[in-house]
Amino acid sequence: xxxxxxxxxxxxxxxxxxxxxxxxxxxxxxxxxxxxxxxxxxxxxxxxxxxxxxxxxxxxxxxxxxxxxxxxxxxxxxxxxxxxxxxxxxxxxxxxxxxxx
Length: 101
Known about the structure:
Blueprint: E1 3-7, H1 12-28, E2 31-38, E3 42-43, E4 49-50, H2 54-76, E5 82-88, H3 91-100
Parallel strand pairs: 1-2, 2-5
Antiparallel strand pairs: 3-4
Helix pairs in contact: 1-2
């Protein structure tokens, strides 16, 4: 089955790109997968300090992705399944991991 990976940063620009990708996926009978990579912020100091927990970041990003997906569905009037992936890391590294699976 064909798959289209749709990276997003939740911006208006990425919404426009995602709308296009969803329509393309429908024409190609492909599965659409929304994707977002996030970083764990570390405050630079003598001892690195994480200012928020991984669980909080993951939860916030999953909620942001669900909200983005709902807005996307409303714009393209899509009822088919749209999966999403939210992972920590550098976007290029995570995309490479996803496509190698």
